Each structure stands twice: as C-alpha cells, then as structure tokens.
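Structure tokens
________________
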Amino acid sequence: MHHANHHYGHSHILARYCEMPEPLHPPRIHGYLQHGWNIGDGLAPGTPYVAGSRLLVWSEETRRRSWSQGRRNVVVVGAPFAYLVEMTPPADEPGEGTIFYPFHGWEGQQVHGDHQRLIDEVKATETGPITACLYWNEYRTRAVRALYERAGFRVICHGYRGFMWRDHNRDFLVGQLAELRRHRRVVSNRLCSAIWYGLLAGRETAVYGDPMILDNADMTFGGEPRLHRQWPELYGHTTDYATCHRLARVQLGADELAGPDELRELLGWPKREHV
C-alpha cells in the first residue's frame, strides 16, 4: 500500500466505516488515495505514482481535473474526513471562540511569513478564546510556538501525519474533528483542508491575512492566486455559512460517499461475510 494512504489515519477511518475489525494495519488499499485537499489531480506534487494504477479521489471536480491530465483509472470515493463525520454524531453545543490554522510547511518545504502580523490580525478580528493549531513542523519550532503562547492563544498540535509507513497518528482526524466542534469559528490565512473540514463539521469559517510563501511552491495548478479567484466566497473576516457549506460538500465529496460494501470493493478489500 502506498504510504500516503495511511496519512492522518485515513486507512483506519475507512476500515472502521467498512465495519472491519480494528487492526494495527488495515488491509492494503489497491490504489492511491488522495491524502489532502488540493486544486490539482488528487496527487500531491512529485508523488511517486505507477501509471495506470487506480487513483481514489475525494470529489467529482478532482476526478475531472485528473481526467484532463490524462489519467483514466480515477474513482470518486469522498474524503475520509467526510466518512468520519458520518460516523460521529455531533453534541448539541455551538462551540466557543475560534480555532486558527496558520499555513504550514512540511519536511520538504518551509513557510516564510510574519506570524506576529497574523496574530495581531486574528486577535483584532476574533472574539472569545482563540486556539492556534500548529502543524507539527511549526509546533516543534520553539520560536514560532512561543509567539502564539505569548499572545495568549491556547496552542495545540493534532500530531504527526506519518511518513513512509512510520509514526502515523491513527486518531489525527478524530482529534481534529473534536477540536473543530469545540469552537464556533475556524479560520486560516489560506484556503486549506481545515477550512473545508470546519464547514462540514458545522462551523463558521473565514480565510484572511497574509497567505505567506512556501519554498519552491508548485504553481502548476495556479497556487494561492487561483484559490482566491475560484473560491472568493470563503475569503474575508466574515462569510456566508450556507454558501460555504455547500461548497465544502462538493470539495469533500460528502454527497458521493459509498456504502460500506461498495467502499470495500472500491478499495480492493475483502467482502464482508454475511451470516
């Protein structure tokens, strides 16, 4: 199984939805599962990919883009987070305050920007307690984490997504969903997975502030300028929840989720034994 299929506990969530026993390692997914929201063809830039193998994407929009790039064995399955939401009924609480996700880098690319400017804008805009959720890459950088702590933010990290079949946090998205529902608003300085997840979890969202710069950013599909141009509804200090929620359902394939038996077949997993 491609190691990215384990990222963020995706394979474990899908195994749980398919009503499979809770194994240490789920069965091999026969294909490449899109592991994060992107504006490309479902593959992260530079991802090793065997031509002709199945590509399992989150949305019909992504499937069409992938088709335009010459890929033919592409199937829409929906985002693992959408399956998790289906399996996790919400508590009857509106949430309090804001959770802020600063744009982040990863092992191969670092982010450059002024965190203090972001902090000042968020504090001037949001009401109630503020949580800053740093990606592990920034969380382990003491200088960055200290800026948010000194500003009075509650600072957390959802954990490590895993890499090359090692150190995966199988409950990454479980913890993220709980945190999203704990807050009233979800904001970021870039349109990203967390914003779409917040909307699907029933929370108000907004994208504002300096989007920062990523080292050697791949602009094949348009980058940050395209995000702002294609989804202007999500930008600004305030947004319309109903409009943005509809967009989130499209991007996460929330209305195209497979049933457990169908999903088993799409992933290449054994059929369920019926008594």
Observations:
- The two ends are 30 Å apart (CA to CA).
- The mean pLDDT is 88.
